[in-house]
Specification:
CATH class of the largest domain: Mainly Alpha
Distance between the termini: 44 Å
Helix content: 25-40%
Number of strands: 11
Structural class: alpha+beta
Length: about 220
């Protein structure tokens, strides 16, 4: 299925758009920081290989800029625990990103009748490895929660949602005003000094992510 607002004259983007995915309505869940919507059933135009397409079509400049920055960051990151970049296209009205086929972790868990603790622990370990990779590169994810994790067809857990990712040395709480949906994931220290945010964000986000699965 094509969407006319981006397909005309956007020859640089080589993928066909599928249907949008809806997250569980309870809990106020968002994907990443909330800039993108995810379209499943998408495919590359030339060879029809499956992909997932993240779409940001917000009209306000800051959200589009954050989405574009997220794509730029993803292009530079290569790690087994980070979602795989395939293609991207930017215009004044939208940002489109094609990745390997994935589904949100929130839907993956909802669609399974039962999952062994060993599988959940293995998935959490993959997320930890991805976060550690970012930390070693001097980066903090900034919005780590279940909506920032996606699952491949091989049931591998991978990170995305980089709209709020920052350099550790430049970390501050200023972006919380732009993403009110993420306020509940921020450490209490975010109300204090930037130095306190640096110490707290990394550990607090990991602890809260694991807590969701009942291991703490």
């Amino acid at each position: 299925m094509f969407s006319s607002w981006w397909s005309k004259g956007s020859g640089a983007f080589t993928c066909d758009l599928g249907a949008a995915i809806e997250l569980p309505r309870d809990g106020g869940h968002v994907l990443g920081a909330g800039a993108f919507a995810l379209h499943a059933g998408s495919q590359k135009s030339a060879d029809k290989n499956p992909v997932s397409i993240f779409v940001c079509s917000e009209t306000d400049g800051p959200t589009l800029a954050a989405a574009a920055g997220s794509v730029k960051k993803l292009k530079t990151l290569r790690h087994p625990s980070v979602i795989l970049f395939v293609d991207a296209h930017e215009s004044e009205k939208a940002v489109l990103l094609a990745t390997e086929p994935v589904e949100p972790l929130l839907l993956h868990l909802q669609n399974q009748n039962s999952l062994q603790d060993s599988y959940l622990a293995w998935g959490i370990l993959q997320v930890f490895r991805g976060v550690a990779f970012l930390h070693e590169a001097g980066l903090v994810h900034g919005s780590l929660h279940a909506g920032s994790v996606f699952v491949t067809r091989g049931w591998e857990w991978k990170l995305f949602g980089f709209e709020q990712m920052q350099q550790i040395q430049q970390l501050s709480s200023n972006t919380r005003n732009q993403w009110p949906a993420l306020a509940k994931y921020a450490p209490p220290e975010a109300e204090l000094s930037p130095a306190s945010v640096k110490r707290a964000t990394f550990v607090y986000s990991l602890h809260r992510f694991v807590y969701v699965f009942g291991f703490i």
